[in-house]
Amino acid sequence: MRHFGHIAPEVRRRLFHQEPCSFTADSPTRLLSAALGATLYSPATRPRLADDIVRQAANGVVSMVLCLEDSIDDADVVHGEENLVRQFADLDGAGTALPLLFIRVRTPEQIPDLVDRLGAGVRHLSGFVLPKFTEERGIPFLEALATAEAACGRRLFAMPVLESPELLYRESRFDTLEGVFRAVDKYRDRVLALRLGVTDFCSSYGLRRAPDMTAYDVQIVASVIADVVNMLGRADGTGFTVTGPVWEYFRVPERLFKPMLRTSPFLEGQAVELREALIEHAMDGLLREISLDHANGLLGKTCIHPSHVPAVHALSVVSHEEYSDAADILHPERGGGGVLRSQYTNKMNEVKPHRAWAERTMLRAEVFGVAHEDISFVDLLAAGIPD
User: Fold this and answer.
1) Name one Pfam family in it (predicted).
2) At what angle do helices 135-152 and 170-186 cross, to 10 degrees?
3) Closest C-alpha among 103, 162, 169 to residue 134
4) Which candidate among 84, 219, 271, 303 keeps its CA 20 to 30 Å from the CA of 210?
C-alpha cells in the first residue's frame, strides 16, 4: 500500500517531487507509525464490513480500527465479535491490498480469544487498540497481546488510547503519565502509536467543542495534549508517535463564526467550489485542527468519516520548502552545526536545534511524499478526494 496510491500514476507524477513510498504490514515499526495517516474507525457490527474495508482501501485509506468498544452498544459485543470472525474470513478473497487493520477491544481477555477465533484470518490483523490506558489497566492488555502474538506467530501492535479521567485531572496527571510511560516503554517494540481520546476528556467536564472550534481552543484539552507530548512524544529516542484527536463533524447546519479557510488558496479553477464544499461540511475546522496537530507534535488522526481522510493526507504531505530545509540541515557537511540561510531565502536554518525536526520531516516525506514546488495542499486535497 502507499499514500495517494488510489490516484493515477500520471497525476502523482504531476503532484509529487518525491512520491510516497510503498509499505506493507511487515514494514519497520518506525515507518508504519508515521504512515498511519487518517485512521478510520468503524463499528465492528457493520454487516458488510469486509466490503467496506476493501472500498475504503480503494479510496486511499491505509489504516482502520474495527471497534468493539464505545461505538457499539454493550449488548452487541458478542455479535460484534462473531461478525469480525466472519468478515475477516471474507477478506481472504479481497484480491487487493488491505489497510492496516486493528481491533479496538474492551477487555484484555478479548485479545487472545479473538486471535484464536480468527484462525487463518489473523494474517489480515495488524494489532489492537487498547482503551482508557493507564499503567494499571494497560499492563494486562499488553501481556495479553504478547501471549496472542506468541500463539499466532505474527507481529501484533498495540495502540493505547489515552483518555482516562486520571490523565485529565491535574492532581493525578503527571503520576498517570509516568505510569503510562513505564508501561509502553517496557513493551516498546509492540507499541505502534499512542492515540488521544479527546471526546472522553471533554465528557469528564460536560464539554463538547463546536464545529468552528478546534481541540486547541478547549484549554483544558489543550493542556493535556501539551503534557502528553511533553512526556511521551519527545524526539530524543524515548518518545512515541502521538496521533491527533478525532474530528466529530461532517456537516454543519448553522455557523456562528466566519469560516477558517482563507479564500486566496482556492481562487483557481474549480477550487472555489471545493472551498464552499469544505465549509459546508465543517472541513475548515478540521483543516485548521490538523495544522495545529502538526504544530504541536502530533502525526496522523483518528477519523470517524471517510470524507476526513483526504484532508488529513493532503496536509501530511511535505512541502517542497520543508523538504529543501530538512535536506540542507541533514547534509553531511553540516554535521558540525552552524547557521545557514534557507534555499527559499526566507528563514534561518540552525543545524543542531533543527536536526530533530529535519529527521521527522524526512520520515514524513518518505511515507507521504514531497510536493512539487508549485503544488499546494489544495491541489493535493482535490486529487485525493474519491470520484
Assistant:
1) C-C_Bond_Lyase
2) 20
3) 162
4) 271
For residue 64, the SS3 value is strand
Q: Backbone dihedral region of 172: left (phi > 0), alpha (psi from -120 to 50 degrees) or beta?
A: alpha
Q: What is the CA angle 380-297-192, rounded to 5?
A: 90
Q: Which residues contact 226 (CB under 8 A, 6 or more apart)?
A: 296
Q: Measured between alpha carbons, how far is 177 from 33 in angstroms, rounded to an integer? A: 20
All three cell numbers of 155? 507481529
Q: Are strands 16-18 and 370-371 parallel, antiparallel or unpaired?
A: antiparallel
Q: Name all domains of the chain by residue range, CATH numbers in brackets.
A: 22-317 (3.20.20.60), 319-387 (no CATH)
pLDDT tens-place string over residues 323-369 = 999 999 998 776 677 888 888 888 888 889 999 999 999 999 999 99
Residue 102, helix vs strand vs coil: strand
- Give the pTM: 0.91
| Angstrom distance (rounded) from CA 248 to CA 250 | 7
Strand partners, 64: 40, 101
CA separation for the pair 232, 328 (Å, rounded):
28
129 forms beta bridges with 104, 159
Cell 502521538 locates to 242
Short-list 118, 98, 97, 114, CA closest to 106: 114
> What's the distance, CA 316 to chain centroid?
10
Give the closest residue to 68 by CA, choosing from 113, 123, 98: 113
* pLDDT tens column, 84-136: 999 999 998 777 889 999 999 999 999 999 999 999 999 999 999 999 999 99
User: What is the Cα–Cα distance from 64 to 364, expressed in whole angstroms?
Assistant: 19
Q: Are 369 and 9 in contact (CB under 8 A)?
A: no
- HSE-up of residue 372 (Cα within 13 Å, Cβ side): 11
What distance in Å separates the CA atoms of residue 36 and residue 298, rounded to the nearest whole number?
12
Q: How far lies 330's CA from each of 63, 196, 217, 319, in Å?
A: 30, 31, 35, 17
Residues 6+ apart with CB under 8 A from 75: none
